[in-house]
Amino acid sequence: MRCISFLLVYFSLAAWTYGQKSLAVEGTLREGTEAIPGAVVRLYPTEAIEISDDNGFFRFGKLTPGQYRLEVRLLGYKTYIDSLDLTNQPIRLDIRLEEEVSVLSREVVVIGRNTETVSGRLNDVSGTAIYASKKTELINVRNLNANLATNNTRQIYARIPGLNIWEYDRGGLQLGIGGRGLSPNRSSNFNIRQNGYDISADALGYPESYYTPSAEALNRIEIIRGAASLQYGPQFGGLVNFIMQEGPRTKLIEFTTRQTGGSFGLFNSFNSLGGTVAQGKLNYYTFFQYKRGDSWRPNSHYTQQNGYLHLAYDLTPKLKVTGEYTHMRYLAQQPGGLTDAQFAEDASVSVRARNWFQVDWNLVSLNLDYKISETTRLNWRNYTLQGGREAIGALTYINRPDFGVNRDYMTDRYNNLGSELRFIHQYNLFGQPDNTFLIGGRAYRGLTVRKQGDGNNGEGPDFEFLDSEPNKSSFCFPGTNLAFFAENIFRIGKNWSITPGARFEYINTKAEGYYFKVNKFIPNEKIYETRTNPRTFMLLGIGTSRKFGRNAEFYANISQNYRSINFNDIRVVNTNARVDPNLKDETGFNGDLGLRGTFRNWLYADISVFYLKYNDRIGSIFSTDSSYMTYRLRTNVSDSRNLGLELLLDGDILQALTQGKSKYKLSLYTSLSLIDARYINTKNTAIANKLVENVPPVLFRTGLSTGTPRFNLTYQFAFQTKQYSDATNTEVTPTAVDGAIPAFSVMDLSARYSWRLFTLSSGVNNLTDSRYFTRRADGYPGPGILPADKRNYYLTLQFKI
Q1: Which member of 109, 361, 392, 592 has the greatest number of CB atoms within 10 A?
Q2: Which burial class, exposed, middle or buried, applies to 538 when counting CB atoms under 10 A from its CB (0-12, 13-18, 19+)?
Q3: What does the pLDDT read at residue 629?
Q4: Is 176 within 8 Å of 169 (Cβ atoms)?
Q5: C-alpha angle 704/710/712, rounded to 5°?
Q6: What is the C-alpha separation between 37 and 59, in angstroms, rounded?
Q7: Average pLDDT, stretch 225-237?
Q8: pLDDT in the model for residue 15
Q9: Which of the 8 DSSP states describes residue 712?
Q10: What's the family (predicted)?
Q11: Strands 698-707 and 25-31: what pairing?
């Protein structure tokens, strides 16, 4: 009750202060009734610049009385100019932009002619980051017609070519994506961030993501692949950055509730509150989500709670402070894997009833943005993760029955702190404007406490050890990282740029603890172990970009990469997998060459080729022990090289046929990747020239969307070819841990209708009820084949006021 009373008083005071006089110019940009984001708004003579947000809103505050000139520019629209006389009252404008085919400056990249596009790319410079010459991709989640309640990865990432997706998580609790032939295992080859800060378990030694932001709370997803190491770390995959929604700038309060029901007991309740108060200085957004459900296989129940709070306050016109808190917790029962024979006979069965998984995640961030001048900005991010995960179950081979013996229990606790400072400055050089210099530094301390031992022989989620101490292993993995990076965009002429960069890394990972050596005829031996592995290295990269036509660009880049040994590679007891004690870090590089742009104002295209070189690649080799049981040996298999082509075409056919006059849309997209990934430079004939695991040579996804501003119908089709789960390209094994993953195709259908304050969404996932799988697991949540979902339905009712 105190909290409710406080909120009522707070919003009452905020509404009162908001109504007081303030010298400001603000407004909303529209095309018809639709808001227009991404427009460049200038106010003269102040030289201030604002970008209209997702609601088309912009605002200039702290103004003195006088004469002003407002100018609005956006690709595809006529330039809007208006003279303003600011006296003792704020000015509020409702501006309708008119379409025009014209060329605009390079300040903003707009994909398509309206606000309903899903695909896109990032600007050369955004905030305190440089993306020039890099392979960047953008997913506008707010424009997706998909099953957002379950974070349906196949639908959300359909327009990103080359992504291999693990589909086994029916509730969308964990994200498993890998690009360009890298493992999708909890997206560990990407640097996963939320609003610019790390959210994975431990960015140094255990970069796996157990937390996935709710798709219903996302504004967009930014993906920077290839040469992303210089600003975001040394990883091969690049960056995935989830940008959360903010409160609307034009409202004191906006409330949204989304209630979803679906097949297999799915119930999802998403409720958010947001707005802007305190005379436009304080923006807030918060949500709470509760989700539960089962699956088409028994032993699959899950529950999830997810909450988020965002507060951004403009202390001065130049200084903004942003604080965020994220909490996520879920409990999931895991039905385990299947053998090939079981999958072929009846994929709906479960032979494990005692496996459970639990995650508790807490993220806190504090962000300071300081605008030194119109050309110079400073950003300071500070963040912490306090969380953990627990797993208990029977990890024996899936072709062996679970006789009810003591289960294996593993627990991790994560205590991470990070701070990142960025400085960016734009300047003129030899008469060329918009040269941009970026320098930054990062300090990171991670601590993972990992324990493994016997749990009880029960059936429930009893997360505790049988003995006073774990009887298999107990380790602390402290890690320290210091990094410094710099990049510069050099403009050569009007349309050509070169962007070199460098990153210095100091990494020190440690292991302190004990494990038990298993003996047959004598008691197990307790062995204490301490490891320290400090290393320093420099990563270099360079890119170039040549712009031509209205909005087309040729780009090329190359950058070095590095990946350290994972904590899982140091000390984990798993009968299905073993680790080479001489395992070492991986090195290599990424190279891109591509052409992208918006053509005739209706088609967005991005076609590129890439080359990924991996030295001392860590992979899995199918092996047999002295008892003739098969297992995976995780080792430095050999060098590998991935060569591929990526293509995205996304356009509105009706806009092309009617020259932009149709009020309806008929959008068609095609995403295609062709990848040849092979092991090279090895004398091991078992893997020489073999295909790299987890790499489908062909990934093809396409979709068709039609409708009006009120109604939308979307069809999606996905196909991928056969791949393997180990480096020896084994076809089948008795334990199903290794083997082929056959080709498959799957379809989805979604519909959405909006009426006033209500939106009704529904759809069918796996329309033709295909039986397929994308993963063979050697441990949790398997081991064995993990079947993808069968046909299922969902229905969502949204109310927004």
Answers
A1: 392
A2: exposed
A3: 60
A4: yes
A5: 15
A6: 13
A7: 81
A8: 40
A9: E
A10: Belongs to the TonB-dependent receptor family.
A11: unpaired
**SS3 at position 54:** coil
Per DSSP, helices labelled H in 60-129 are none
Q: Which residue has the tokens 């082929």?
A: 740
pLDDT of residue 192: 95
State phi, psi for 456 to the nearest 5 degrees: -80, 175
Asked whether 407 and 394 are in contact (CB, 8 A), the reply is: yes
Nearest Cα to 675, choosing from 643, 701, 700, 647?
643
Specify the DSSP element, H or E, that contains 31.
strand 25-31
Helix (H) or strand (E) holding 11: helix 2-18
CA nearest 245: which of 53, 109, 27?
Answer: 53
Q: Which positions ≥6 away from 565 have C-beta within 8 Å?
A: 205, 509, 533, 583, 584, 585, 618
pLDDT for 3 equals: 45
pLDDT digits (tens, 9 = 90+) for 214-225: 999 999 999 998
Run of H or E residues at 371: strand 356-373
Tokens of 121: 């790319």
Amino acid symbol at 432? Q
Instruction: State whether residue 528 is helix, strand or coil.
Output: strand
Handedness of CA 521, 522, 523, 525 (dihedral sign): negative
660: pLDDT strictly greater than 60: yes
3-state secondary structure (DSSP) of residue 143: helix
CA-to-CA distance for 204 and 416, rounded, in angstroms?
10
Residue of 571, 645, 580, 643 lying closest to 616 (CA atoms)? 580
DSSP structure string for 607-665? EEEEEEEEEEEEEEEEEE-TTS-EEEEEEEEEEEEEEEEEEEEEEEHHHHHHTT--SSE
Distance, in Å, from the CA atom of 384 to the CA atom of 399, rounded to the nearest integer, reads 42
Strand 91-96 to strand 25-31: parallel, antiparallel, or no bridges (unpaired)? parallel
Q: What is the largest CA-CA distance in the chain?
A: 93
- The band of 568, judged by pLDDT with boundaries at 50, 70 and 90, is low
525-548 and 119-120 strand pairing: unpaired
State both tokens at 653. 């056919």
pLDDT tens digit sequence for 680-693: 998 888 889 999 99
Peptide bond into 781 cis (omega under 30): yes
Read off the pTM.
Answer: 0.86
**Is the predicted pLDDT of residue 21 greater than 60, yes or no?**
no
Name the token pair of 170. Answer: 């029916």
Beta-strand pair 302-314/282-293: antiparallel
> Please, which residues have CB within 8 angstroms of residue 340's CB and are 6 or more apart in sequence?
732, 736, 739, 785
409, two tokens? 């229990």
CA 112 to CA 575: how far, in whole Å?
A: 53
pLDDT-wise least confident of 76-85, 146-155, 194-203: 76-85
**3-state secondary structure at position 186:** helix
Q: Distances in Å between the alpha carbon of 165 and those of 153, 184, 788, 792?
A: 7, 6, 11, 19
Instruction: Record the tokens describing residue 518, joined without a space.
Output: 């298993």
Note the pLDDT tens digit of each residue in 87-144.
888 888 989 888 654 333 333 343 334 446 788 888 899 889 999 999 999 999 989 9
| Total count of residues recorded for the chain | 801
Domains of the chain plus CATH, in order, are 239-800 (2.40.170.20)
In this structure, what token pair is assigned to residue 553?
């660009």
Q: Residues 167, 168, 171, 172: is their CA dihedral positive or negative? A: negative
Neighbours of 585 (CB within 10 A): 18
Q: What are the Cα distances from residue 337, in Å, to 175, 340, 775? A: 19, 10, 10
Distance between CA atoms of residues 64 and 87, nearest Å:
8
